Amino acid sequence: MSRWRPRSLGVDPVTGKEALVVARPGGFLEALADAHALEAATVLLAVVAAVLEAGEASDAELAAFVSPLHAALDECVGMMAANAAADSGAAHGE
C-alpha cells in the first residue's frame, strides 16, 4: 500500500506553521513522522480518556473529538500497513 502523502513533523512554535514532508519509506523523515504521529495519538488518547472518565462532557464536546480521533487512527493504521508491507517484502527477499 503506497502512502505517498504529506506527513506532519509537528508545528513550528515560532511561526505556528505545520512542517509537512513526503518521506521515503524506511527513511529518517518517515521515522520522525511516525514518532510524531504516535506522540500525538498518545496525547489525544490521554485527553479523550480524561474527558470520558470525568463523564461530564456534552454530546457536542464529545463530537469534537471524532475528527481528530479519525485522523490519528488513519495515521496509525497507515503506519501499521506500511510496516506490514515492509515486513512482507523482507520476508520475500524484496
Write a concise synopsis of the structure shown:
By secondary structure, this protein is mainly α.
Describe this entry's structure for a reader.
The protein is mostly helical and 94 residues long. 62% of the residues lie in helices and 10% in strands. It has helices at 28-54, 59-63, 66-91, and strands spanning 7-11, 18-21. The chain has a two-stranded antiparallel sheet with strand order 1-2. α1 crosses α3 (66-91). 6% of the residues are buried.
Helices and strands in order:
Layout: E1 7-11, E2 18-21, H1 28-54, H2 59-63, H3 66-91
Helix pairs in contact: 1-3
Give the count of helical stretches. 3
Alpha-carbon distance between the two ends: 15 Å
Mean pLDDT: 89
Label the structural class. mainly alpha
Read across the widest sheet, the strand sequence of neighbours is 1-2
Residue fraction in strands: 5-15%
Major beta-sheet overview: 2 strands, antiparallel
Poorly predicted sequence stretches spanning 5 or more consecutive residues: none
What is the alpha-carbon Rg in Å?
A: 16 Å
Helix content: 55-70%
What order do the helices and strands follow?
A: EEHHH
- The shape is globular
Number of strands: 2
